[in-house]
Amino acid sequence: MATVIDTKIHPPLLRSTLLRREAALALMDQALAHPLTVLRAPAGFGKTTLVAQWGAGLEETGFAWLSLDPMADSGRSFILHLIRAVGRALPAPDMALQNLITSESLSATGALAALVAAVLAAGRPLVLVLDDLHRLTSAEALAFLQSLIDHAPSRLHIVLISRSDPPLHLAHLRARGQLVRIPDSALRFSRAETADFLHESLGLTMEPAELTTLHTRTEGWIAALQLAGLAMNEEGDRPGFLARFSGADGDIAAFLGQEVLSRLPGDMMDFLSRSAVLEWFDADLAAQVTGHQDAAAMIRRIDQANLFLVALTPSRTTFRYHHLFADLLRSLPRTAELAPALNRAAADCLSARGLEIDAVHYALAAGDTLRAAELVETCCMAAVKLGQITRLRAWLERLPPGVNDSRPRLLLAQAWVYFHSSAPRRALTCVRAARDLLRQTQSDAALPRETHAALWAEMQVLGVGALSAGERSARARRMALTLLPGLPHQEHFLRGTLNNVLGFCEYPLGSLGPARLACSRGRAAHEQAGSVFGMAYSELILGLIEKSAGNLQIARQHFASGADMAREALGAGSYAEAMAAVFQAELAYESDDLDAAARHLADHRGEMEAFGLVVHEMTVRLSAARLSAARGETAAAIAILSEAEVSGARNHYRRLVASALNDHVRLLLAGGNAALARGVLMARGVSEDSSESPGAPSTAHEMEQIALSRVLIAEGTAAAAHERLTRIVGRLRYSGRLRRLVQVQAVNAIAALNAGERMAALNAISEAVETAFRQGALRSLLDEGAALARVIDWARPRIPSWSRDVALSAFVTGLHSRLAPSAPAAGPQTQAPPPLLSPKEAEVAAALQAGASNREISEQLAISMDTVKWHLKNIFSKLGVSSRIQAVLALSARGDRPDPHPKGW
Questions:
Q1: Phi first, then psi: what are they for 562, rounded to 5°?
Q2: What is the fold, at CATH topology level, of the domain defined by 6-187?
Q3: Where are the domains of the chain?
Q4: Residue 452 contacts by C-beta under 8 Å, 6 or more apart in sequence?
Q5: Which helix (H) or strand (E) covers residue 648, if one does?
Q6: Regarding the domain delimited by 840-894, which CATH topology (the fold level of the hierarchy) does it fall under?
Q7: Distance CA 285, CA 316 (A)
Q8: pLDDT, tens digit, for every residue of 106-151?
Q9: Which string of DSSP letters, residue by residue, matches 24-73?
Q10: pTM for this model (two decimals)
């Protein structure tokens, strides 16, 4: 008689901290209406845990469990284990089953009849779970299981858990709707489940960007998340761990080696190690690269064995390996040895198919940089039209130095990268170099006439684009209007790009109507060119225009259209999608949906900080700072804004500097630091005498004036602030920029009331609130805090429309209730705001104001030079400055004076 190990017929014990996966459990509940459920997924995907958790919640149903292993892999042993498992789950002992266990002669037919009879006699439904079914290989055991499935009574529901397709005949059940498959996609953790699992099971709370990185690399694979979380807890260096995180070493490599690779036959291992160099493959590509002419059959075997193969098409003809599994395969000595030859073969195969964009990667991986340069020349414009700027930059960085110098096509490709990387001056340098080279090739007749004409037109369009990206909007507009009529008619992509550039120039100059017209024409041209990236860019600029006009719902539609278009054509997480997503974050913040804003930023902030125009960088940094401030993290918000000002000043982006400066000043004033706010303005060269620079975007000057007006109000000269703001209001009304109008009129209402201009205050607050109400805007008002709460409290009984209109009245009430808690209590403040600088920072600041050098500060305070630099960095960040001179000005304006005898001197 075979021995039955008792633990094999018990479901695993569940930890109290186990994450409850409601969506996956709901799928199991739905499957219960069918006779058979199959869970098929690779090792470590939580199949067993999910079913055990589901079974623990069954109340009116019996739950039988059998974990399979080699000891049960024979006909007799399997049947005995099955009988014990079913008998344990019955409400009362079944004598027929007990007699079978002790019987010396056990027939499959008699055992099947007894099992069916016992289930029918139980009087309630029974679930039978067979775990690790891939371990069952015995022909007799599989035949008995097939018979049980075919003759199962209606009260019996069978659940099969396996890493591979069960070697059973189940098609007839599937055809009759009697079988439900729970795919591995349903078992993968969602991003939210990843966050919950790490926090509840491992005590890890991760930043959104860190969480996105980990979730993307693991692809929701639960075992990998568990191992990665444990490693992060042990190492302590979370950023370093995530930077190194791979499937090629550590516990994940050991897990895959023991649980997966060690069990594979030699021919399959050879195919896996060779095909691992491929980012994606189909049967033909795999056959040509690996030399396995049976590649199609091998792929089917791998798919059936569920070896971390991810189908990329619904027809399941194109595949890739799970990221971490691919990491491990590529680290194998055999793969590393063959990699150069395999990569060269892949480059040749893909190039022959006309897939040069994919071929470049393999030419570079093979070390054949000259071949790669030729491929980049062939496909770089296709990459630009697809918005694959990140990929194009990576290619160009890996080409040999100087390879671009004699190739105008590559110089212009580099210009496209710089144009989209907030580096317009470098873009112009490349454009000029390409222009000189094209003039030379024209005289040498080295290029066909049509090729030369196309490159010349591209060079001109890029030159205008670089000027617009460098905030020289007025000049770029003039050049675009001059260039457009002469562009070759067949160059639809360039025509679309130049119209988008023209629209982008008109937008910051306040000409919203011409901007709309230019971008609409740009979108039509890009549609003719078949450039999804170009169309998405048109949608983005149209969204910016409508946002400026205060049509926030229409702006949302444009941004969503651009993001959806990019995601559908280019895949999730593309540069084109990121461009729109950061503005979706801004509008989510405006409507006070802070969670949605944070999600958009977490997913796309990194891409837009590395790439994008000034408007992208500005939106990312301001949104991040505003979210921090809304969460009460004022110091972090000020640090972000200070970095934005420094970046903007370094790159001559006046709009970025001015917008960050306005928020910086607002936060300082909210903390009672009027003197420091004045110092920050002085450090940026903003004062009552500041004038509008000819040719610069008017929006930058407006933001500087709003920031200055805030300080004037705090300093008690509200009348001067009201006068400045009123001039801006007239300009905003004239140009139709109603979103900015809300923001300016909110500050203007505070200024007017403080100046005693009661009628002007009523007009300003009425226009601000009612315009915001129509737009669905909220944070533009909420962020003004207690000062605006006092204005609304004063104005409510004096503006009849606020009580007559039910919807408007509810908006005002909700707005006031949100603002009121932040309003300070009446009477003098009894508690001074906390000091800006720590005691040691104050000592360093005093020495700085006294004119001491870093070395003198080090000697006077008996601290190292590195410590001096560290304190200066913190002081500059808190003051929002980037140089010693600016810091001294800000400290002086703040009223700080050096202590003649500071501690430690």
A1: -65, -45
A2: Rossmann fold (3.40.50)
A3: 6-187, 191-245, 716-823, 840-894
A4: 438, 441, 442
A5: helix 634-650
A6: Arc Repressor Mutant, subunit A (1.10.10)
A7: 15
A8: 788 888 998 999 989 888 899 999 998 888 888 898 999 999 998 8
A9: HHHHHHHHTTSSEEEEE--TTSSHHHHHHHHHHT-SSSEEEEEE--GGG-
A10: 0.67
